[in-house]
From TrEMBL:
Annotated GO biological process: microtubule-based movement; mitotic spindle assembly; spindle elongation
Name assigned to this protein: Kinesin-like protein
SMART domains from the UniProt entry: KISc
UniProtKB keywords: ATP-binding, Coiled coil, Cytoplasm, Cytoskeleton, Microtubule, Motor protein, Nucleotide-binding, Phosphoprotein
Domain of life from the UniProt record: Eukaryota
Record domain Kinesin motor: where: 18-432
Cellular component terms per the entry's GO annotation: mitotic spindle; nucleus; spindle microtubule
Length: 697
C-alpha cells in the first residue's frame, strides 16, 4: 500500500477538496481469531481500493446464490488505512491538513462512522497509551499556540460564530464551572497524562511529524481555546458536561438548536469551557464520557446509540479584539446497525429510526457536498435542516469549511452484511468502483447507429439492409480509392475491383463481429446493471419490509397500551360502585322482608287463602332462583358489556354476580309487588263476599 501512495500534486489537490472519505480497517482481536472470524472478507487492493468478499452463510452470499446481487464488491476511498496503521500515521494521513487549515481560521468537521465495535472511538479518542486523532489534534493545536495563549478567560464564544466579553463576575463563574466539572473526576484514580507529544510518543513511536506553520504576520496574535462536548440521542441534544440527574424520574435537559442573525446554527445553553492545555481538554473529554455512559445506563441504552460531538473553538485575538474564530468538531457517529439486527420495539425502534434517519440525511448532505464540490456552480438543495446533526453543521455543508469521514470497519465474517452496508453508505460519499470499469463498457456498448443515423440492430438482431447501406461503396471508398478508379489500365481496374469486393466482404465480416461483440458486452453491462438494480431493490424491499414489520409491532404495542389506559378503573371508583350495590341490595332486602311480612299478616287474617299465599311465596322464591333470571337475561348481558375489561378478574366476577343478583331481585320484587296487589284485591273481594254472606245469614 505504501508504494501506491498518491503523488504530491494529486495529494495537494485532494487535500483541498471539501470532503474526503477514508477507510480504516481494524485488526482482529484474539477472540475473533480464535472464533474463525477471519475468512478473507476484506481484501485491500491498494491504497484506495478495497474488495469485500461475502463469506458463506452471510445474507449477501445467500442473495448472490439466488442471483440477486454480487458476492464481491469493490469500493474506493480517498485513502485506505490497513489493520497495521498506527494512530500517528492515521492522524498524519487524514486530518492533519484540516487541523492546519483550522489554525489558519477555517472550520473543520470530522466524522467517525461504522458499526458498533468497528473502532470509531479508538479512532477518535484512542486510549491513554495510544491516543486517537482528537488528543493528537489537541497536541498540535497547543504546540502551535504555545507561549501565545490568551489567559484572561474574558473572551468567550457566543451564539453561532460570535464572541462576547465577560465581566469579572462572569469570568469567576466560568472558573467555578470549570472547577466543578474537573471535580467530577477527582474521585477517579487515573495517572496524569503528560502534556505534549512526548507523552505518548513512546507507544506510537512515530509522533514526531513536523508541524511547522507559517506564523509570519500572526506573531502578535493570541489564542483562546474553548471546548464543548454534547450528544444527540433520539434527535435531542444533551450537554455531556452537565452531570446526568441521579434521580430515576428526573430527565436530562434537552438543548435547543438555534440560528443566529447570520444563519449560523448553534446549540443554545451549551457549556463552553476554556482550556489551557491538552490535559485539561482530555479531562473534559473524560467527564463527558463518564456522563454519557451514566445517562445511557440510566436510560438502558448503549452509548453507541447516540452521536457524540467534541468541538474546539479557537479564538484568534488581536489585543482585545477577536479577529477570527474557527471551529474543529469531531463527531463519533452512532453505530450504524440496521433495524433488523437490533432489538426493535418501542424505544429501541424509535432510536433505530432516528439513527437511520439522521445517517440518511447525513448521507444526502454528503452527496450534495460531493456534487457541489465537483461542480461548484451547481448549488443543489441540501437537506441539512432535516436532522439535528446536519442542522448543527449546516455551515460546513454550505461550504464554510472542510469535512472528512473516517469509515471504520472490522474484518469479521459474522458482521459482514453490516460492514457491506457501511461501505455502501460511505460509497454515497465516495464513488463505488464497479468490478468492470464503466468507461471501458461505455466504449464497448453496441454502436447501434450507422453513419446515416439508422440503427444497425433491430430488436437485438443485425438489420441487413442497414448494414448494406453502412457498407455501401460511398461509405467504403475514401477519396484516395476514388482516385484509383480513374486509372486507365483495365487489368489494374479488375484487380482493384476484386480487392474492393474482398475488402467489402472483409469489412462486412468485421462489422458483424464488432456488432456481435458490442452486443455481447452490452448485454453483460446491462446484466451488471440489472444485477446492481436487483440488489439495490432487494435491499430497499428488505428494508421497507423490516420497517413495516417494526411499525406494525410498534402500532400493536401502542394499541395495547392505549387499551390498558382506556379500560383502567380507579380503585376508589370501583369501591364507590360496590357501595352503591350494597345500598341497593339492603334496600331490596328490606322491601322483600316487608312484602313477606305483609303476606303472612294477610294469611293470618284469612287462613283460607294460606295455600295460595304460600304458593305465592314459593313462586316468589322460585323467581329469585331461575325464572326471573332468564327473563332478565338481556338486561344482564347489557350490564356485563358495560363492565370494564381492564378490571381484575375477581372484581369483574364479583360485579357480574352482584349485577345479576340485583337484576333478579328487582324482577322478583316487581313480580312480588304485582302478586301482592292481586292478592290484596282478591282479599278485598273475599272480604266483600264474606260481608255479603254475613248479611244474608
Ligand atoms: N485500530 C485498532 N487497533 C487496535 N485495536 C483496536 C483498533 N480499533 C479498535 N480497536 C479495539 O477494538 C475494540 C472496539 O473499538 P471501539 O470501542 O473503538 O469501537 P466502536 O466502533 O467505537 O464501538 P461502539 O460503537 O460500541 O462505541 C476496542 O477494544 C478497541 O480498543
Amino acid at each position: 500500500m505504501q508504494s501506491d501512495v498518491l503523488d504530491t500534486a494529486e495529494q495537494q489537490q485532494q487535500k483541498h477538496q471539501q470532503l474526503r472519505v477514508y477507510l480504516r480497517v481494524r485488526p482482529f482481536s484474539k477472540d475473533e481469531m480464535s472464533s474463525n472470524e477471519d475468512q478473507g472478507c476484506v481484501v485491500l487492493e491498494n491504497a484506495r481500493t478495497v474488495m469485500l468478499h461475502a463469506p458463506k452463510g452471510s445474507a449477501t452470499m445467500k442473495s448472490s446464490e439466488k442471483g440477486v446481487g454480487q458476492a464481491i464488491h469493490t469500493f474506493s476511498f480517498s485513502q485506505i488505512f490497513g489493520p497495521e496503521t498506527k494512530q500517528a500515521d492515521l492522524f498524519e494521513g487524514t486530518i492533519k491538513s484540516q487541523v492546519h487549515d483550522y489554525l489558519e481560521g477555517k472550520n473543520a468537521l470530522v466524522f467517525s462512522y461504522g458499526v458498533t465495535n468497528a473502532g470509531k472511538t479508538h479512532t477518535i479518542q484512542g486510549s491513554q497509551k495510544d491516543p486517537g486523532i482528537l488528543p493528537q489534534a489537541l497536541d498540535v493545536i497547543f504546540r502551535h499556540i504555545k507561549g501565545r495563549q490568551y489567559e484572561k478567560m474574558d473572551l468567550k464564544p457566543y451564539l453561532g460564530s460570535d464572541a462576547q466579553y465577560l465581566g469579572p463576575d462572569q469570568v469567576q463563574q466560568e472558573r467555578n464551572t470549570k472547577a466543578a466539572i474537573f471535580a467530577l473526576l477527582k474521585e477517579e484514580n487515573e495517572p496524569p497524562r503528560v502534556s505534549g507529544v512526548s507523552s505518548h510518543s513512546s507507544s506510537t513511536g512515530s509522533l514526531s511529524f513536523s508541524v511547522s506553520y507559517d506564523n509570519t504576520g500572526t506573531s502578535h496574535l493570541q489564542f483562546a481555546l474553548w471546548v464543548s462536548f454534547y450528544e444527540i440521542y433520539n434527535e435531542s441534544v444533551y450537554d455531556l458536561l452537565q452531570a446526568s440527574p441521579t434521580s430515576k424520574t428526573k430527565r436530562r435537559t434537552a438543548l435547543r438548536v438555534c440560528e443566529d442573525s447570520m444563519g449560523n446554527s448553534y446549540v443554545r445553553d451549551l457549556k463552553w469551557i476554556n482550556v489551557h492545555n491538552s490535559e485539561e481538554a482530555c479531562k473534559i473529554l473524560r467527564v463527558g464520557n463518564k456522563n454519557r455512559s451514566a445517562a445511557s445506563t440510566k436510560m438502558n441504552h448503549s452509548s453507541s446509540r447516540s452521536h457524540s460531538i467534541f468541538t474546539i473553538k479557537l479564538l484568534r485575538i488581536d489585543g482585545t479584539e477577536v479577529q477570527t474564530m474557527s471551529e474543529l468538531s469531531l463527531c463519533d457517529l452512532a453505530g450504524s446497525e440496521r433495524c433488523g439486527k437490533t432489538k426493535t420495539f418501542g424505544e429501541r425502534l424509535k432510536e433505530a429510526g432516528n439513527i437511520n434517519n439522521s445517517l440518511l440525511i447525513l448521507g444526502k448532505c454528503i452527496a450534495a457536498l460531493r456534487s457541489n464540490q465537483s461542480d461548484r456552480m451547481k448549488n443543489g438543495y441540501i437537506p441539512f435542516r432535516e436532522s439535528k446533526l446536519t442542522r448543527i453543521f449546516q455551515s460546513i455543508f454550505c461550504g464554510k469549511g472542510r469535512a472528512s469521514m473516517i469509515v471504520n470497519i472490522n474484518q469479521c465474517a459474522s458482521t459482514y452484511d453490516e460492514t457491506l452496508h457501511v461501505m455502501k453508505f460511505s460509497a454515497i460519499a465516495k464513488q463505488v468502483v464497479q468490478l468492470i470499469p464503466t468507461k471501458c463498457l461505455e466504449s464497448l456498448t453496441p454502436r447501434l447507429m450507422g453513419r446515416d443515423g439508422k440503427p444497425l440492430l433491430k430488436n437485438g438482431v443485425i438489420d441487413d439492409q442497414a448494414l448494406e447501406n453502412y457498407l455501401s461503396e460511398e461509405e467504403l471508398l475514401d477519396e484516395d480509392e476514388a482516385d484509383m478508379s480513374i486509372l486507365p489500365q483495365e487489368d489494374l481496374m479488375n484487380v482493384i475491383e476484386n480487392l474492393r469486393t474482398k475488402l467489402l466482404a472483409e469489412r462486412r465480416k468485421n462489422l458483424v463481429q464488432e456488432i456481435d461483440i458490442r452486443k455481447e458486452m452490452g448485454d453483460r453491462h446491462m446484466g451488471c446493471q440489472v444485477a446492481e438494480l436487483k440488489e439495490s431493490y432487494q435491499e430497499k424491499l428488505e428494508n421497507t419490509f423490516e420497517m413495516y414489520k417494526d411499525a406494525l409491532k410498534d402500532h400493536a404495542y401502542q394499541r395495547a397500551l392505549e387499551r390498558v389506559e382506556d379500560d383502567y378503573v380507579p380503585l376508589e371508583e370501583f369501591i364507590a360502585e360496590q357501595e352503591k350495590v350494597e345500598v341497593l341490595d339492603t334496600h331490596f332486602r328490606r322491601l322483600t322482608r316487608s312484602c313477606h311480612n305483609h303476606l303472612i299478616k294477610l294469611s293470618d287474617m284469612n287462613s283460607v287463602n294460606l295455600g295460595s299465599d304460600l304458593q305465592c311465596l314459593h313462586l316468589f322464591n322460585f323467581s329469585l332462583g331461575v325464572s326471573i333470571r332468564e327473563s332478565s337475561a338481556m338486561h344482564f348481558e347489557t350490564k356485563v358489556l358495560e363492565l370494564k375489561p381492564g378490571m381484575s378478574l375477581a372484581y369483574f366476577q364479583l360485579i357480574v354476580s352482584l349485577q345479576k343478583r340485583i337484576a333478579v331481585l328487582n324482577d322478583a320484587l316487581h313480580e312480588a309487588g304485582e302478586r301482592f296487589f292481586e292478592k290484596t284485591s282478591e282479599i278485598e273481594t273475599l272480604h266483600k263476599k264474606l260481608a255479603d254472606q254475613v248479611k244474608t245469614t
